[in-house]
Structure formats: C-alpha cells, structure tokens
Design brief:
This protein is an alpha/beta fold and 538 residues long. The protein contains 18 helices and 13 strands. The strands form two sheets. Strands 1-3-2-6-8-7-12-13-11-9-10 form an eleven-stranded mixed β-sheet, with helices on both faces. Strands 4-5 form a two-stranded antiparallel sheet.
Length: 538
C-alpha cells in the first residue's frame, strides 16, 4: 500500500485523472487484508472475487464517462448491516442466518454510487458484547498495537481503514460505536444527526439511539460518504430527508464560535495524562484557522449519559428477549451481562429516561444559541489491552471515570465527528470530538476538514501487523460476590431471560448500580412535565 492513496478523496481524484484504476486500488486493499487480517481480525467475511468484478466494472463505467460519486472505491461494511454479497451474522451464533437477505438501504446507496464492497467487518456481538474468545469469531485488534483493542462496536471498520484494507467503511453508533473505534484507531468518524441516514436493514441495538455513519481517514472522506447515504427510506420510519447536503469546503473559520468542555469531572481516573496537551494543541489549530474557542459546561452530562444507558439496555432487551429465554448460553458472556441488567429497569425508568433526553435537548439548544460548535475529547484514554476491552455499558451506569465520552450525543441525536489529534505517551491515538446542532452535519465536517488542512494525524500509517497472536483467555468469573438479594433474584426471575445459575450472583450484584443510575433521573430539572423523546404521532 506504500504507493496507494491514503484517503478516499485522494483516490477519487487519482481515479478521475486516470493515474490509478479501481482494479489497482482494490488489489492493494485485498493484499493488505491477505497480509494483516489474520492478526487484526478486521473481517467476518471477505468477497475478493466479487470485489474484483466490481472494480473491473467500475473502471469500464468510468471509461464510458460515469461520474458516480464513489466509483471504484473499496469499502468495508459492518456486519450488522445486510448486504447482497453474503450473510449477516451480527458476530453472533444467535442471529438467524436467513435474516436480512439483500442490501440494506445504506449498502444499496453505496453500491449505486459505485463503491466496491470488499467484505463485512467485525463488530461487538449485536453491537453490544465485548470480544469473547470462546466464540468462533475473529478478535478485533488495534493496528497501532495488536495487543490492544480496536474499540467498538464498529471494530473492524475502524481498524480496517487504518490498516489500508479499504478506504472507507460503514459503522453504527448507539453509544460510541463509530467515534470510539475511529478515535482508538487514529481515523475520522461521523455519527450523523439522528434519522439523517436510514437504519433499514440494520440489526437494532437501541431503536431510538442507533445511527449509521461513515468512517474514513479524513473529514472530507466522511463527507463524501455521507453525501450518498443521507435521505429518507420508507422502510425506516425514523429516517428523514433533512436539508440538502453538500460536501463542505474547508478553509477559514472566522466568525465561528466553538464551546469547549474538557469533561474532567466525568472522565476522572480514566483520563490519560497527555490528553489535555493534545486537545489544547488541536484547539490552537482551530483558533489559528479563525475560530473563537470559549469554555462551556455541557448541561446535564451525567444525567443524559445515564438516560442513554437505561435506554440502550431496555430497548436491546426488548429486541433480544425471545432468544435470551431459549439461547442464553449462545450469547457472548458480556452481552448476557449487559442485557441481563435490563431486569432492573422498570417501564417508568425507561419513560423518565426519555424525558431526561428531552430536557437535555432543550438545554443543549440553548447552548447552541451562544456557540456554533461544541467540542470535547472523544475518548479519555487510548485503546486498552484486548483482555481489558469492554465493560462500556457498566461504565455508563457507574457514571464516573468514563473512558469514552460519546453516549451523551446519542441520547440527544446531534451530529458528532471524531478527528485524530495525535498520540499518547504509549504511542496510541487520541481524538477530539466536534458536535453541531441537529442537521448541522456540514458544519462539523467543515470544522474537521479545516483542522485537517493544518494537521496530518489522520494520515499517520501503522506498520504492517506482526504474525497472528494467540487468542486471549476467557475472562474468569468474578470472585467474592455477595449472596444475591431476594429482591434481585425475584427481578431476574420475573424477567425470564434464561439466566444460568452460575451467573445469577454477578448479575444480581449490578442491581444497586443500575437502580442508583435510574434514581438519578428522577429529579432532573425540566422533566416533570416534559414530553418524552419517543412521543407517538399518528
């Protein structure tokens, strides 16, 4: 890949001039996967012959004068998004392989724009469960250090872009899952405005929180991908057309006000010692580009994050309930732990969480009356060791020492872009998050592109991966847990989730944390008479 273009946008410019062909781009991507995928665990399934055929067809179409916006570009698609190329697994033994034949709306739009689909990328199980070495799926690893995790849940999409196995990818984001792996792998990723990209043909995790978004090296790349993804699809009632979208020009940011919250209070002990220096340097670049940066405090941060946690597990447990009862042991251990916590969330808790989300939207809208863009770190710390991956849902319930500073924006639906800002003292990527008002996707992409005109962190390339590593050992069950309370056991029994007796104590131990989190939502100002965000309309 040494002589191949790093960015999707550069590749398109070279394709247009005839300096490179789609066949050459695709062969380079396939060669990178042949070399490194066994180590990095990027793909659940690959389609090399179909990709070669699509690349040849793209070159022929360009010779005939086609101007399709992504013509001939190799792309990876997360394996919870259906494609006609092969089955969708959700990286799970549980999903019926007959589910979701054909292209999801977003896959069809990429294909219609000329993209070359090279494979389906690894994910956390159903976008929730942490890597489980006891299950027959690849373990996603970070190309900057394969002993480290790639992040999730769009794990392979993040690591595959960084490792040169494709020039762009699709991920999904319910609490972090585009922005976290983008940050940990040193690439750029966008969670668009909720509803701007349709979710039809995507396995749900949280119905009211799921977003499909682009992942690539640069903000310009993400904008080019977003341009073909946006727009309503009749099969997704939450999707909207929104305002017209155009790839924004980078350049001067004069007159733009950026509000920055470092989020020290919620990141706490998780925070990398070098994070603030990298973030300050990134903000200095934005000042040099003409922006004014002012301090702000993101309102109701812990409460809105708590509302996201309640919403994720309640909505996910509703989707998975039939299979949890009959196939509990087939789920990943961490998936079982996350979904099992839903037994401790009541219907009233869920509705209150939606009212807190509404209050958060109102409070953030007031903040956007004072600034144009909001900024914070995307993550508080670089990629953890593979063996220490996960625990994200539990960390949201704990509400302190957050390593991933993203779920707040899923609960509110605003567009949020992660851009790399450099490397920690351990040589691992860190990132800045840029957020705009609803449907201001172009604005955050413009700010990201302007930043990347003056920096080259997004162009950094990891070394080829070493030989495949041994699979990590399965996590030992927690020791020294108290006897489950009668109340916790009753709630777990009533949920009828099929929980094995050896896991009851660990799940029951989560009751105080989940209930404390839910109670935190009770007295949030502005929620007593607020409509929940899920108000039904005929």
């Amino acid at each position: 890949m040494a002589d191949s273009p790093l960015t999707l946008s550069d590749a398109l410019r070279l394709l247009d001039t005839g300096a490179i062909s789609s066949v050459e781009l695709t062969e380079a991507a396939l060669a990178a996967a042949d070399r490194d995928d066994a180590t990095l665990g990027v793909f659940v399934s690959r389609f090399p012959e179909r990709a070669r055929a699509a690349a040849r067809a793209a070159d022929e179409a360009r010779a005939r004068g086609s101007a399709a916006p992504l013509l001939g570009v190799p792309i990876g698609i997360k394996d919870i998004i259906t494609t006609e190329d092969g089955e969708t697994t959700g990286q799970s033994l549980v999903l019926d392989r007959a589910w979701g034949a054909g292209d999801a709306a977003v896959a069809a739009r990429l294909r219609a724009a000329g993209a070359v689909v090279v494979g389906k990328t690894t994910t956390m199980e159903f976008a929730l469960g942490d890597p489980d070495p006891t299950k027959p799926f690849p373990i996603p690893r970070n190309p900057w250090d394969p002993t480290r995790w790639a992040g999730g849940s769009s794990s392979g999409s993040g690591s595959g872009v960084a490792a040169g196995m494709f020039l762009g990818a699709l991920g999904t984001d319910t609490g972090a899952s585009v922005r976290m792996p983008s940050a940990l792998c040193g690439i750029t990723g966008l969670k668009p405005t909720y509803g701007r990209v349709p979710k039809s043909g995507v396995i749900p995790l949280g119905y009211s929180l799921d977003h499909v978004g682009p992942m690539a090296r640069s903000a310009e790349d993400c904008a080019r991908l977003l341009g073909v993804l946006v727009g309503r699809d009749a099969a997704d009632p939450t999707s909207v057309d929104g305002p017209p979208f155009a790839v924004p020009a980078a350049g001067d940011l004069s007159g733009l006000r950026i509000g920055y919250d470092p989020l020290h209070a919620v990141s706490g002990a998780a925070r990398d010692l070098g994070l603030d220096a990298l973030t300050d340097a990134a903000l200095d670049v934005l000042r040099e580009r003409g922006a004014t940066v002012v301090p702000v405090t993101l309102p109701l941060y812990s409460e809105v994050t708590a509302a996201c946690a309640v919403s994720i597990i309640a909505e996910a447990a509703a989707y998975h309930a039939p299979d949890l009862r009959d196939r509990w042991a087939d789920y990943f251990a961490s998936t079982r732990a996350g979904l099992g916590m839903a037994a401790f969330v009541s219907a009233a808790d869920y509705v209150q969480a939606q009212r807190v989300r509404r209050a958060g939207q109102v409070a953030v809208a007031a903040l956007f009356a004072e600034v144009d863009v909001l900024a914070s770190p995307t993550v508080a710390a670089p990629a953890p060791p593979v063996e220490a991956a996960g625990g994200y849902v539990a960390s949201l319930f704990a509400g302190t020492d957050l390593a991933y500073l993203t779920a707040y924006w899923n609960a509110l639906g605003n567009p949020a872009l992660s851009v790399p800002t450099g490397f920690s003292s351990t040589g691992l990527p860190l990132a800045l998050q840029l957020v705009g008002p609803a449907f201001a996707d172009e604005t955050v992409l413009r700010v990201g592109a302007s930043y990347q005109e003056r920096t080259d962190w997004h162009l950094a390339r990891p070394e080829p991966a070493p030989a495949p590593l041994d699979r990590p050992s399965a996590a030992a069950p927690p020791a020294g847990l108290p006897e489950p309370s009668a109340g916790a056991l009753a709630m777990l029994e009533q949920a009828a989730l099929g929980i094995g007796p050896d896991e009851l104590a660990a799940l029951a131990a989560a009751l105080p944390m989940v209930r404390a989190n839910a109670e935190r939502l009770r007295d949030v100002p502005g929620t007593r008479y607020a409509d929940p965000v899920t108000v039904f309309r005929a």
